């Protein structure tokens, strides 16, 4: 991937609402080259989606999010791919990562309640033949996501004490 496309990606990652015109101006590139680069990256599936980062704690529609460590036995001939695909096809599953370390997959799941997530783990995820074990961690609060800090620090509000 050329340097021009990487710069376009960085600018879109910072703010996906930036127009091709603004990006062209910021990079000092012709508009048609920036539009062509974006179109190529969308076609090549480098740019997959334009999505906002939402601070759900500010919305009445609360969601419960859990991270689940999953140990699995790889399938002969397919390794982790087939099992990962079975897992990511569930609508509750938002993200699946292949990991190094003590577990194989890290799965992010969303539900309306703790019981929804617990039910998913016990009735769907843990019943997959290749799944050896799961460990579930519920997210209590998000401070930062995708480089964006959710709560602005108001600074130190204590009164100064002098001797």
TrEMBL record:
The keyword Transmembrane helix does not apply. GO terms for molecular function: sequence-specific DNA binding. Keywords: DNA-binding, Transcription, Transcription regulation. Pfam families: AsnC_trans_reg (PF01037), HTH_24 (PF13412). Residues 1-81 form the HTH asnC-type domain. InterPro entries: AsnC-type_HTH_dom, Dimeric_a/b-barrel, HTH-Siroheme_Decarb, Tscrpt_reg_AsnC-like, Tscrpt_reg_AsnC/Lrp_C, WH-like_DNA-bd_sf, WH_DNA-bd_sf. PANTHER family: HTH-TYPE TRANSCRIPTIONAL REGULATOR PTR2, TRANSCRIPTIONAL REGULATOR, ASNC FAMILY. This is Lrp/AsnC family transcriptional regulator. The lineage of its organism: Bacteria, Bacillati, Bacillota, Bacilli, Bacillales.
